Amino acid sequence: MAQDIQAFLFDLDGVLTDTAEFHYLGWQRIADEQGIPFSREENDAMRGLSRRDSLTVLLKGRVIDEATANDWMARKNDYYIASLEHISPKDLLPGVHDFLLAAKSAGLKVAVGSASKNARVVLDKLDILSLFDAVGDGYSIVNNKPAPDLFLWTAGRLNVNPGRAVVFEDAQAGVAAANQGGFYTVGLGDAVGDEANLRLPSLASVTPHQVIDLLLAGHA
Ligand code: B16
Ligand code: MG
Questions:
Q1: Half-sphere exposure of 18 (CA within 13 A, CB side)
Q2: What's the pLDDT score for residue 218?
Q3: What pLDDT was estimated at residue 44?
Q4: CATH label, 7-18+89-218, candidates 3.30.230.10, 3.40.50.1000, 3.30.390.10, 3.30.40.10
């Protein structure tokens, strides 16, 4: 394996599985209950953001008191958790399982860096929790993405320098967090923007070696 890279850090929602639809439906239900206009496009702006920051996006400048904010966030989370009931390994995004196994076989450490406080539940339902050497989630840090804290915390658990690790993200907030932390960045999907070192449509049809070669060629 290329000498420089020691670890891969994966975002969860949008990279390993697509729970974005369930987050969207939860916030849509809150918006409908409160008569707040809300769309799928606005939901894209919530990608990678914490529950609290997602609520701020939903409110679009409306002011609510703290008790109401906590109530809405708790109810959105209840809706979200209910929708996780049927998640299983078949909900892994294409190529993910093989890519994870190939990375581990190549001697890379693998970790998750997800803004979600439900990350471990989702990983368990996907039956991949035990594959990871570390899991950073919404409980690991105070300042969530786009701050670099979550990925730095996770790299610390792996004992790997950020300059020797790659972050895979689907969200602009996540790419910004990883760039600021000094990681190599791979952007996946349509909503990721153009700040990543490398953009790929998905983890299908690409190997860890190819990703590393492309990243290192870009930094030559
Ligand atoms: P929770 P990621 C993020 O997961 C989601 O993309 C984002 O939509 C969600 O608001 C956030 O987790 C917090 O989730 O309410 O479950 O704590 O993309 O960082 O894996
Ligand atoms: Mg994501």
A1: 9
A2: 81
A3: 84
A4: 3.40.50.1000
- The CA-to-CA distance between both ends of the chain, in Å, stands at 17
d(CA 138, CA 176): 17
Looking at the chain, which residues constitute the CATH 1.10.150.240 domain(s)? 20-86
Ligand 1 neighbourhood includes 116 CB (under 6 angstroms): yes
State the catalytic residue, choosing from 4, 13, 71, 194. 13
Q: Over 90: is that where the pLDDT of 192 sits?
A: no
Q: Which amino acid is at 106?
A: A
Mutate to test the pocket of ligand 1, among 70, 116, 124 (most ligand atoms within 8 A of CB): 116
Is the CB of 47 within 6 Å of ligand 1?
Answer: yes
User: Ligand 2 centre from 109 Cα, in Å?
Assistant: 20
Going by CA atoms, what residue is nearest to atom 3 of ligand 1? 48
Provide long-range contacts, Cβ within 8 A and 24+ apart, for 71-75: 72/30, 72/34, 75/30
Which CATH superfamily hosts domain 20-86? Putative phosphatase; domain 2 (1.10.150.240)
